[in-house]
Amino acid sequence: MKLKGIIILIVIVFIAVYSAAFTVDETEQVIITQFGKPVGQPIKEPGLYFKVPLVQQATYFPKNLLNWDGEPGQVPTLDKTYIWVDTFALWKIVDPLKFFQTVNNVIGAQARLDDILDAAVRNLITSYPLIETVRMTNRNLKTTSVMVDQQRVGGSLGKVTTGREKITMIMLQQAQPKAEKFGIKLVDMKIKRLNYVESVQKSVYARMIAERNQMAEKFRSEGKGEAKKIEGDRDKDLNRITSEAYKASQEIKGKADAQATAIYARAYNQDPEFYSFVKSLEAYKAGLGKDTYLLLSTKSDLLRYFEEYGITDKKR
């Protein structure tokens, strides 16, 4: 019986020690609660710790960075342009005791951050014109795919004086004092995405399409002008080549005619009568056909060879 009692005592002690011991790692911090109320100071250093078993409970909170992702909302800018704004923030628990006493857990903290950060976003977006929220500097835009092009930035929307980066910094500064009341530190806050509301998108897209069409028409007209210029240069070169070829051909023909004339002259000087006879035959061949009728005397120069050969009929 004594041995059995000792064993039972050992088991009870083991259970008590096991339920009293707890560990904290590098990413955690702990609040000890007794009957639902915190006791002692928060435990932030990693290690092995003990609590009163069955009476006290260890409540863990993360020590690392946590993410807050806001719901996209429709917000008007100072110049009355409605945009969708999607933001996110990084935060962490720096005072777990105050955190436990105010929001109790991470889910409750996220709900409080929704109120704080959404209000800061809306307050700052409505306090600045659209260009301040969209852009950070006044650098020239080199792309045509952005929502706000260079023409609008340099024209009706004005110049950037504050910029999106400073606006988000101001959001963070406004929200931080409210978050400290819950033992929370806001580490960073950024605008994740901006977009026009649907009605504004349609007008912007229509304007962008019209501008792109205007630019395309300009390119087409310039291309047509360049094509006409190329065609004109082509016709000019073709006329020049044709005229030069015609000139060269006429020079060759002239030289050939001169040589032929010289040959004819030499032939004529050698036998003028035979030359006259040959040229007359060529004239007969060229000017007299089967349906040709002539009323000429054989005494004429054209038909004198007919008379010499005894042909006196007036019809060929």
How would you describe what is shown here?
With 316 residues, the chain is of the alpha+beta class. It has three domains: 61 residues, no CATH class; 131 residues, Band 7 domain (Tetrahydropterin Synthase, Chain A); 38 residues, no CATH class. Strands 6, 7, 8 and 9 form a four-stranded antiparallel sheet that branches. A three-stranded antiparallel sheet has the order 3-2-5, with helices on one face. α3 packs across α6 and α7 packs across α8. The C terminus is likely disordered.
Report on the biggest sheet: 4 strands, antiparallel
SSE succession: HEEEEEEEEHHHHHEHHH
- The proportion of strand residues reads 15-25%
- Do you know the CATH architecture of the largest domain? 2-Layer Sandwich
Overall residue-averaged pLDDT value: 82
Low-confidence stretches: 144-155, 312-316
CATH C-level label of the largest domain: Alpha Beta
Q: What is the fourth-level CATH superfamily of the largest domain?
A: Band 7 domain
Quaternary state reads single chain
What gyration radius follows from the Cα positions, in whole Å?
A: 54 Å
* Named CATH topology of the largest domain: Tetrahydropterin Synthase, Chain A
Rounded to the nearest angstrom, the distance between the terminal CA atoms is 168 Å
